[in-house]
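Training component of the fellowship. As part of building independent skills, the fellow (R.M.) carried out the full modelling exercise for a liganded target. The chosen ligand was cobalt (II) ion. The inputs are recorded below so that the supervisory panel can assess the work.
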Amino acid sequence: MGPEDLLKVLEGLPLRDERLLVGPDTLDDGGVFQIDRDKALIQTVDFFTPLVDDPYDFGAVAAANAVSDVYAMGGIPLTALSVVCFPAKGVDFDIMRRMLLGGFEKIREAGAAVAGGHSVTDNEIKFGFAVTGIVDPSRIVRVSGARPGDALVLTKPIGTGVLAHGLKAGQVSDEARDLFVSSMKRLNSAASRAMVDVGVNACTDVTGFGVLGHALNMARSSEVSFVLKSGRVPFFPEAEDMAAKKVCPGGLNRNRDYVRPYLKSEVGGPRVDLLFDPQTSGGLLIAVSAEKRESLLSALKDGGVEEACVVGGVVDRKDPYLIVE
Ligand code: CO
Ligand code: CO
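Fellow's submitted model of the complex:
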């Protein structure tokens, strides 16, 4: 669901609790529950339908995507519960085993334990995890907190939505598939560690709302405006071809509708269309002060996050929250 509809549905429901440092009434990636002075739990859940054919890969992507919200908030994953929807008949259970194996191995790679799960009979396969992480309450990274003068750093290329869509239609080369699938399987752990070590002002992971939808959530919560340089955003190979061919996953136009009232775009074309592309297991979008920008970029490089780059900056709150150049 889009954030606008979701916030409308949640309005007036009994959600407030004093022990929550971050509750469901914000646009943050997960909820945060304080345990004591220096410990808080981050909780988040994510599951979805297969976007790649290989069940092992799909499981790994679903797990990397689910733990990502913990990383975006600067936390460390502790436990995960699997959420499985699977048909009672017609699909071999070996497929489910391989999907779970991909997911469980990825959760282990994240240093967390699969503590259990729940499965439901459903004609459509869906898979994901509810993840619990831990964070020092004084070091939570939120979507709010971006300040004028900050640089915006993105840690993975964009285009998984159009590419997964094009892949189903047989329009994506094997080389291009391997690149974006291995990126979706990559944990945001190293990027998160780098950002926590350096100290940043705000962060979110780029997933279903696309670069601009998540940028809007950050800019709005921080009461600032973002200027994004479309020429600086890295894209996966063949993503621009897909966008030029108008290959369009369902969420792309939904994201455009959500963002449009708050956007001033001085450019157009496939590169701008891709900024609305819904991502799965995308990178982190980080707001970092000008002084710490270079330390963050070198910490990311040292951590093996090769593709991280500056894609724009934060300015004083203007009429549109987002400006694309
Ligand atoms: Co998120
Ligand atoms: Co999420």
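The panel noted the following from the submitted structure. The chain has two domains: 13-139, 151-324. The longest strand covers residues 76-86.
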